[in-house]
Amino acid sequence: LVAAVLFSGALVAADAAHGPMELAGVTMTPHLIAPSMRYAKAPDPSLGARVQLFLRNAGKTPLHFEARSGIRFRGKTPAELLAADAWAWHDLPGAWPEDSLTLPPGAMTVWSFNGCREDWGVGTSVDATLELGREHGPQSLAFDLARPDAWIAAVTFLGAEDRIYPDRMVAHITNSATAPLRIVSCRLWLPESNATWRALHARDVLSGVQTLPADGMIPPGDKGILIAVTGDLPRTYVIVELQTELGGVPRTLWAHLRVKREAFDISGGWVNSTVNGKHTLTFEPFLKTLKRMHINTAHIGDNIPGYTDQTGPDGLYTRYPLKFFHKLQPFEHYDTNDMLLRIHAAEFIGEPQYGGGRPVPPMEVWQAFAPYQRTRIATTVTHSEERIWRFYAGLSDYPHYDAYRVTAPSPDMWRKYDRWGDVRIAWGAPLETIGDMCRSLRELNRPMPTAYWSQGPHEGWGMYGWRRRTSPTPDEIRLQAYHALSSRITSLYWFNLSLKSLVKFRDTLDELVRCGREMRMLEDFYLEGDAYRWEQVRRDGKQDWELASVVAPQGAVLFALDLDYAPHPEDRVFVFGPPRESTFTFALPAWLRHPAEVFRVDADGVYDVGHELADQGVIIRDTAHKVAIYVASAKPGMRDALETKRRSLASYEAAFDFNPAHNDADFEVLAASLR
């Protein structure tokens, strides 16, 4: 008897009569390459896929897997596939030499592998053989890697800021099929403990689930949302099982990721340095400056005397806390209830795609992260080069990347961009390629959240292409950040707001405060939302605007990002034209086609805007340039709520009674810290 069912676009077949292991589903994430990027060496065009196999013990006795367990794909072991450069990495039992897997009856496990090229990509078939011991013998499995036409695009776990465990989940579902997709039910699978995180057990179907559209019916080519109150969720790995009907035919969508309480964190980067033998994080004027920018995270651990140990009622850390963003070991120190509230994520590998002269193989990166998988600490890794980061997709819980567009080292070849016709420059690259890379990273790692290192003032960069200014201008800072934000990230890390950097480039301080205030105003949309639509609009044959949207249960944030800019031939900075009258057409999901309010927002206020409804969205007419941010809210009252929040954020900034951007005396106090 052979069973065959469609899961996430992959045909799954299992010889159920000859073994207890049921292949319940396959999630296949196709590789992609951003076509806009330019390199000295063109990317390998052969695209594979990241594959997750959802395997359930359908038998009556436990199944045991060890590193030496015989598992083969197309006749080869995972180790042989790695050695042949067919797979970039995997987490099958052979990857765990000292940690066996016991799968009780009814439990499920997830095996992942990342196929390097097209023979492990869309349109291929895979046969596998599992040796299940004397009792069961070998079992065969087969599945097709068809391009998915429906998938879980984003899963976010949310909860109160002062609590360790999230108790709410928001999932976004993409239906790219030609038939409607109906959300039927949702179930979570969780392990008994973090120590046995690879064996997951079914929980009851979630009750009280809300969907958007309200009837759960997602039209063809559209997206929908599921919101669920889950109760406290352990901070471990979870399987999300979503039962749907596609064109009336049952379809199960699967996702596997870590439960982490998502928060929009803004990092200052490497803000801890020493001046005259003292840590800069012990300088209160510097801490005030960072907190005015709404920064709550830094690349630090709990090891800075005079700062992180000052946790009394009036201690520096108590008054100016920054979350930890480092290796976070030993685990017995950091994986505690008290510490988890003060942690962003573990990041310690650097940029493995560079690796000190050679790329660190993805499997080595996986091995470095493996010890964290049984802890409650989420991992994150710095990606560097879009040309090859598909091979690293899925390795960490919270991937991010760094790529800066002016006066900074970069893997892409800036002189190869023909963005301005015959004008080629060596000191910068098109700012909008930030969005291209963000979308690439997001789609390769879905449904996990992603973040971005955004270019800020940094005193350590040298001169590139004869550009005299060795850091971005305020406009360049703003546009790079917003090309990332409009793609839907859930944290932003500035590089690099050291004390020296802020003093050297005082003209950037106000822009950093404004960006921070705007991020905090809209953080709930970023956290609960997902990217919806993106397009570039041309005028008179030239790039004019980039339009993007992030849709959340509360409504949509709509971005118009100015593409009418050019390199200044003498100053060698990017300059923008004057404000201009423009008409923007934004598509909206079916459930938001009649928004209750449409308005514009920025750090200074909330504004009326001319608009009218279109067949599938909204048309906005406005005079704008650089960055224009609009909100289409699902219910009345959002405009007032955001204005209230904006004023509260401005009051928070003013409460520090320290404004080095505009007050010369305050700036002198900040600068004096360096002397």
Question: Any overview of this molecule?
Answer:
This protein is of the alpha+beta class and 675 residues long. Helix content is 17%, strand content 35%. A 6-stranded antiparallel β-sheet has the order 30-31-32-40-36-37, covered by helices on one side. The longest helix has 20 residues, at 509-528. The chain is globular. It starts with a strand and ends with a helix. Residues 1-7 and 13-17 have low confidence and may be disordered.
Largest beta-sheet characterization: 6 strands, antiparallel
Proportion of residues in extended strands: 25-35%
Gross morphology? globular
For the secondary structure, the number of strands is 40
Q: Supply Rg.
A: 25 Å
Mean pLDDT metric: 95
Alpha-beta content class: alpha+beta
The helical percent reads: 10-25%
What is the end-to-end distance?
79 Å
Contiguous helical run count: 12
As laid out across the biggest beta sheet, the strand order is 30-31-32-40-36-37
Oligomer: single chain
Poorly predicted sequence stretches spanning 5 or more consecutive residues: 1-7, 13-17
Short description:
The chain has 675 residues and is an alpha+beta fold. The chain has 12 helices and 40 strands.
Q: What would the keywords be for this entry?
A:
alpha+beta, 675 residues, globular, 5-stranded antiparallel sheet, 6-stranded antiparallel sheet
Q: What's the SSE blueprint?
A:
Elements: E1 2-7, E2 10-15, E3 21-30, E4 49-57, E5 63-65, E6 71-73, H1 78-83, E7 87-90, E8 101-103, E9 108-115, E10 124-131, E11 138-145, E12 150-158, E13 168-175, E14 181-191, E15 200-205, E16 210-212, E17 217-218, E18 222-229, E19 237-246, E20 249-258, E21 265-267, E22 274-275, E23 278-279, H2 284-292, H3 316-319, E24 324-326, H4 331-334, H5 337-340, E25 343-346, H6 362-369, E26 382-383, E27 400-402, H7 433-445, E28 451-455, H8 474-485, E29 491-495, H9 499-504, H10 509-528, E30 530-539, E31 542-552, E32 555-562, E33 565-567, E34 574-576, E35 580-587, E36 597-602, E37 605-607, E38 610-614, E39 617-624, E40 627-633, H11 638-654, H12 664-672
Parallel strand pairs: 21-29, 24-25, 26-27, 27-28, 28-29
Antiparallel strand pairs: 1-2, 2-11, 3-4, 4-9, 5-8, 6-10, 7-9, 10-11, 12-13, 13-18, 14-15, 14-17, 14-19, 16-18, 19-20, 22-23, 30-31, 31-32, 32-40, 33-34, 35-39, 36-37, 36-40, 38-39
